[in-house]
Design goal:
197 residues, mainly alpha, two-stranded antiparallel sheet, 4 strands, 62% helix, globular, disordered C terminus
Length: 197
């Protein structure tokens, strides 16, 4: 039988460095989208106005081009046999089931990914509605939009506070999905393929 050692929670600095590596990957994707936009603008002679699709259409296009690919990156990395995105792999971290330390199920990773990206999508919702009002010459914003804008600013801070101060350093995405991030790689015992932590 494989032996298990305690799952160790990573230090906050290690989590931050892993996050920065993942953000570098995300920024690489955003730079690619920006380059494609520049090329298309040069070819057509005009920049595409997303608001021609309406506020909902612009947000949907933003979701399809940016949020969905990032979500796929997070999901595929954390549901893989390595249980980690590139950032987590680089820093020796992985996502496990919080109950038993085993590999989490794909539905758990899906929930984790959705909850993790929720503040980002809320921010996009608020920004597109703000842009639409400004584009129409408006200068007054409804109270509900102001509340959403504040929530979009506060939620990421709440997520960070959970990771910094919650006992197991679990953010809302981990608490809701029943997962946690731990230190240590997965090694296999002989030819059995049984994970040894």
């Amino acid at each position: 039988m494989p032996s298990r050692v305690p799952l160790l929670r990573p230090k906050s600095g290690i989590r931050l460095l892993a996050l920065l590596v993942d953000y570098a990957v995300i920024l690489g994707w955003m730079a690619t989208l920006a380059l494609v936009t520049v090329i298309l603008t040069a070819i057509t002679g005009e920049m595409f106005n997303w608001l021609e699709l309406g506020t909902a259409g612009a947000q949907l296009l933003g979701f399809l081009l940016l949020v969905l690919p990032v979500g796929v990156y997070l999901f595929l990395g954390e549901s893989s046999s390595r249980q980690a995105t590139l950032g987590k792999r680089a820093l020796g971290l992985r996502v496990v089931d919080a109950r038993n330390g085993d590999r989490p199920s794909r539905p758990r990773i899906l929930v984790r990914t959705i909850v993790k990206l929720l503040p980002w999508e809320i921010a996009h919702f608020a920004v597109w509605h703000t842009i639409a009002i400004v584009a129409e010459g408006g200068s007054e914003f409804p109270a509900w939009l102001m509340i959403v804008l504040v929530a979009a600013d506060v939620l990421p801070l709440v997520y960070v506070a959970f990771v910094l101060f919650q006992k197991d350093r679990r953010g809302p995405h981990d608490l809701i999905a029943g997962t946690r991030v731990v230190r240590g790689e997965i090694f296999t015992s002989g030819e059995t393929g049984i994970p040894v932590i």
